[in-house]
Amino acid sequence: MRTVTIADVAKHAGVAVSTVSYVLSGKRAISATTRQRVLDSVRVLGYHPNAGARALASKRAKVIALVLPLRAGMNLPVLMQFATSVVTTARQYDHDVLLMTADEGADGLHRVAASALVDGLLLMDVEIHDPRVPLLRKLAEPSVLIGFPADPEGLTCVDLDFARAGALCADHLADLGHREIALLGAPRVVYERGTGFAERTMAGFVDAARRHGMEADARPCEESFDEVHAAVKLLLDERPGLSGLVVHNEAAAGHVLGALRILGRRVPEDVSVVAICPDDIAERASPALTSVLIPAEDVGRQAVRLLMAKLEGQTVPESTLLEPRLTIRESSR
Amino acid sequence: MRTVTIADVAKHAGVAVSTVSYVLSGKRAISATTRQRVLDSVRVLGYHPNAGARALASKRAKVIALVLPLRAGMNLPVLMQFATSVVTTARQYDHDVLLMTADEGADGLHRVAASALVDGLLLMDVEIHDPRVPLLRKLAEPSVLIGFPADPEGLTCVDLDFARAGALCADHLADLGHREIALLGAPRVVYERGTGFAERTMAGFVDAARRHGMEADARPCEESFDEVHAAVKLLLDERPGLSGLVVHNEAAAGHVLGALRILGRRVPEDVSVVAICPDDIAERASPALTSVLIPAEDVGRQAVRLLMAKLEGQTVPESTLLEPRLTIRESSR
DNA sequence: GCAGGTCATCGAAGCGCTTCGACGCGAAGG
DNA sequence: CCTTCGCGTCGAAGCGCTTCGATGACCTGC
């Protein structure tokens, strides 16, 4: 059973190869009757265009690269949601997704771009001083970044507006009348890596708190139960008047609740807790967490859209910040 | 800056195009001096073979599809580890990975295979009666499954030996002198989906317990703290003599520990807990969990190896079961 | 010293597709 | 009635690579 080529379809439909091509691509007008005949032949023969040949002739592979940071400290569920939405959205644009890990580094990007394996690149978890950024600027292939490097000039970046997310949490706690609040962030290594989003959340939080005239404190937070417990205890000891806690660390969110329980503080009666995390985590916690969600799906969809627009030659905004949304649940009052 | 082609390299090195090709592929003997000259030109010009052209001419895309079940109820960290190891291993064989979601279904598989976008397929989370399995049998492209469908005849399947994993837990508890034990499994929907691994673990556990003459109980378990708490409480009420607990549910493992703490049972003094989960989860728990790890990396690596072997035309075993390994930590005695 | 055999290299024929220019034909315009 | 135009279709030229058969150059052995 040899694989069906466009020539087979052409013969079966009694037209030229080029006509079949035009029917399929819609790049030239074809009469309705011919179109139908060709389409029927395609169906009957079960024709699927050969991807390599198409890429070679059209200089478009219809594949985009997705570069994921498959390493420690990441927020897996969010990453997964993101990947899913990228794949799904890309398919809507008739593109496929090539999965790459960040540790292939700049060479890897260069390789897939230069070999025309992909038409464009989507990078996640960009760092403040990312060695891949200069390369991206040089590459002929368009790219979209999730997150912001130090200098986003000439790039296309998408992200949740983390500063606003931090601020939103502080605003919410201020509205509820809290006067002394704190933020527990990502593990220390995330800050050291300089990924940006963690800092921006802290900054947004602290600024907003200050604007409200509140006492605010922000510090990194590891992910094991014991360390979370210790951190919460320390915080409570140092700041007896503390009544509002923001957790920007998905793995730690559940542990914070556990620690407070053990330390004899009721949520939300004694301490209000607000998390910055995906909705499913917030809903599953007990009590359900008031949270600012990380709209992973939106980010993925938006990133693909921007990339597709760039592939069409359109110009797109350098920076797209997604508005955070606060959902009030049982953990704050 | 036009992209560099093999013809440019040939001209630069003063040889024929075919000679360059043979140098690069090693499929014919080339003198050391010529080889070096060509290699130098490749480096100087920064040549990268065009993937489409290569695929077209050689009928090998050097890309494999990875079909992931990006949906609820899955164990994300394990999935991620698995994906990482697949990508990394594939790169070692000079292959790239096309990411697909399971909800593209059989059509999707057919599409990427028929279009020669990929040379082979790796499917995760295969179900007992998976509609994609018949298609896989028909496909010219080789495939490897993670997990087992009802009838693995003619396929290539890799998985952790879950029956042995369950048995290993029972053995361990028997060795420690426990007489009454129970297993808390995956959420009910996982069993309903008939993915197989959950059942096999239960069966292995129950069989081994019976062999040891122990009283054993096995039931599904949801993932929220409240439901876990309720399940543990119920179990303890029904079976006052229960002293050993096996948890085959990564999300629930931490909650089980929390529930036992609240219910006033010390671990491991009153109840020994053994988890079937990745090492990092087990280590992060408090107390650290004795666990049988799910060797996601091994599975990924092994799956890619098998696929590569099939791509080379070798015949490989239909079924590869990876031996589970028990690591004793603080939660059992 | 020449047939026979290696070894290294070359040239050309595709691989399956897109795209460009050309062409025939009927309709519209003068 | 003849030109002009545009629509629908065709043929052919690549796209960049692999691979097969052919060709010398050189060595071996009798």
DSSP strand tally of chain A: 12
How much is the radius of gyration of chain A in Å? 25 Å
The biggest sheet of chain A, with number of strands, parallel, antiparallel or mixed sense and barrel status, is: 6 strands, parallel
Structural class of chain A, please? alpha/beta
Assembly state of the chains shown: homodimer
Number of DSSP helical runs of chain A: 14
Percent of residues in helices of chain A comes to: 40-55%
Mean pLDDT of chain A: 91
Series of H and E elements of chain A: HHHHEHEHEHEEHEHHEHEHEHEHEE
Main interface by residue count:
A-B, 49 and 49 residues
The neighbouring-strand order within the major sheet of chain A is 2-1-3-4-5-11
Task: List low-confidence stretches of chain A.
Answer: none
Looking at the structure, what is the overall shape of chain A?
elongated
Distance between the termini of chain A: 68 Å
Q: Strand share of the residues of chain A?
A: 15-25%
Describe what this molecule looks like in 3D:
Chain A is α/β, with parallel strands linked by helices. In chain A, about 45% of the residues lie in helices and about 15% in strands. The first copy, chain A, is built from 14 helices and 12 strands. Chain A has helices spanning about 5-15, 15-25, 30-45, 50-60, 75-90, 105-115, 130-140, 160-175, 190-195, 195-210, 225-240, 250-260, 280-285, 295-310, and strands at about 65-70, 95-100, 120-125, 145, 155-160, 180-185, 215-220, 245, 270-275, 290, 320, 325. In chain A, the strands form 2 sheets. In chain A, strands 2-1-3-4-5-11 form a 6-stranded parallel beta sheet, with helices on both faces. In chain A, strand 3 (about 120-125), helix 7 (about 130-140) and strand 4 (about 145) form a beta-alpha-beta unit. In chain A, helix 1 packs across helix 2 and helix 5 (about 75-90) runs parallel beside helix 14. The longest helix of chain A has 17 residues, at about 75-90. Chain A is elongated, with a radius of gyration of 25 Å. At the A-B interface, helix 4, helix 5, strand 2 and helix 6 of A face helix 4, helix 5, strand 2 and helix 6 of B. The structure holds a DNA duplex (30 and 30 nucleotides).
